[in-house]
Every structure is written in structure tokens, then in C-alpha cells.
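Extended Data, record Guanylate kinase
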Amino acid sequence: MTSAQGSIFIVVAPSGAGKTSLVAALLQAEPGVELSVSYTTRAPREGEVDGKNYHFVDRAAFEAMIAAGDFLEYAEVYGNYYGTSARWLRDRLAAGHDILLEIDWQGARQVRKVFGEAVAVFILPPSLPVLEARLRGRATDSEEVIQRRLSEARMEIDQVAEYDYLIVNDDFDQARLDLISVIRSQRLQAARQLQRHADAIAGMQTPR
């Protein structure tokens, strides 16, 4: 078996569309895909672990990393910074790991400028009223925050033509299978398999 360069998968969705749950289900089904752990300046939520959910840093440290060119992509969302380590990502890809980035649409654009071959997936809610109902069902956001998230969802959905795949999260189980299918189909592309299994395939072909 020959080590092949890993692939980048980007998953983007409006807040409340179910991205986090779908990504968790994908990672459970596809242990060969590794989730990139972003840096953020926001405070940890209950149950979150530094280094697992995020790398939690203060604003000064994050801005120092920006100045040093440490981020492949970064964005400020709801007053907090989020960013992806460029060195970590390149090292993992070179080692043959497939990496999933759970980022926003701004970050997705930045990543695809550097890695044009990255596979981008957008998770859509079935409708804005359903999205609003999901946001209200959380019972964690103020009315002002809910309205801001809905406004930003419309802006994010305006960008859907830029993505390779669109998945409507109406039925969670179906959306989960759709997302897994996207990743598996990309990982099974002939060019990647020919590189990954070069020795085995050569051993089965007619001698030249």
C-alpha cells in the first residue's frame, strides 16, 4: 500500500441546520476522516474540552497567530475569531489523512483559494421557518440573536452555487447517509485508489 496525499472535506451550514450533529455522525461512520480542531477566542461551553472541541486562546494570542501567518483561514463570527492551523493541516494531508473542516462560508472560500481540489458540502435546512423553529427550540438565544442568525442564514444560502454538494437536512437519517455517501464516493475515486493501492494493483496486472 502506498501513502497517498489526503483530501480536504469542507462542511458549511447556517446555524441551526444540523451541521454539528451530521458531522459527528459522519466521523463515527468514517473513522478514517479526521476533524480539524479550530482555534477560537470564544469561551468554552459546558462540556467542551480544550484541544478536542477547539483550541481556546485569548484574542491577543489569536491576533499574534494571524500576524505570524499561522492560519490557513480565519474569520470573526459573532464577535469571536475562529481559525484553522495551516501547518497542522498540511502535515496531516502529507501523512495521507483525510481532513474535515467544519467552518463558515468565509473560511470555505479562503481554503478553496489554496486547495482548489477541496470538496465543499453545504447543509441546507428544508426552509427558513423550519430553521427558525429549530433556533427557537434551543431556548438558548435571545430574540435579537435569533433574528441575526436568520439574517446571516439568508446571506450564507446566497452562496450555495459555490459548493460541490448540497444536502437538505429535512430527515436526519437521510441527510446523514447523504453526507457519508459524498465522503465515501470521493475517497473511492480511481486516481486516489490507484495511488493508495499502487503496489497491490500492480501485482494483479499483466506483467509489462
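Summary. The longest strand covers residues 71-77.
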